[in-house]
Fold this sequence. Notes:
Shape: elongated
CATH superfamily of the largest domain: Lrp/AsnC effector binding domain/regulation of amino acid metabolism (RAM) domain
Mean pLDDT: 91
Radius of gyration: 21 Å
Strand content: 15-25%
Strand order of the largest sheet: 2-3-1-4
Amino acid sequence: MIDKIDVLILAILQKNGRTSNAEIARQVGMAPSAVLERMRRLEQKGVIHGFEAVLTPKDVGFTLTAFTFVSADEAVGSTDIGKALARVPGVLEVHYTAGQDSYLVKVRARDTEHLQGILQQFGAIPGARDTRTTVVLTTLKETRSLPLSNQDGNPRTQNKKQRKKT
């Protein structure tokens, strides 16, 4: 189970995964050793499952974002086609969905020619029957961070509020 201190630690790490253990401890009002133990426990539980650098796609040549719905001929509950879609380079996300289509796939490509090649790879997957693709013109928000902290977004303020209640 995750308690309020764990949530504070997670909010800090989401904001900056390179925040030092000592700084996290200072922000949550605990000893660094206790924070380190909590972080290890969160990793062991799979709540934290890695740290990664977040790249700016345009800066590394991926100027096009697209979302593709894929219809598939497979048994209900089977995700074999989704697993094959996930192995295609350029695919960032694969979501198994309810409704008319089986999967929603987020793709990053260098340009429309590159996107065409990715879509051809989708079509070569046995059972992938049809695709509908929408190309993104502008991304207004994109994040992997979950809204864990209080409304003002400052975990320190939330921690102070918690201390006042106790």
